[in-house]
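Bug #2210: token dump truncated for DUF1902 domain-containing protein?
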Amino acid sequence: MKKIIQFQIIKGEKYYVAQGIDLPIVTQAKTLDELAKNINEATELHLRGENLSELGFSKSPSLLVNFELPTTVNA
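Reproduced locally. Full output below:
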């Protein structure tokens, strides 16, 4: 059973966008603090009423967030 639900975060022009790797969840926010709250809320809503073991998750999975940093080119 998986104990971690993973998200990838990218920074767009105006918003940070989080996309679920394990679940079809996408959310966005202007700040990383807001995004963290949105990820928690979206995950809770998505999993509400679901049997986590049927989805391959333990009873209380953790959230892991990966943040993609832009590459810097030094001249």
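Output looks complete on our side. The mean pLDDT is 91. Marking as cannot-reproduce; reopen if the truncation happens again.
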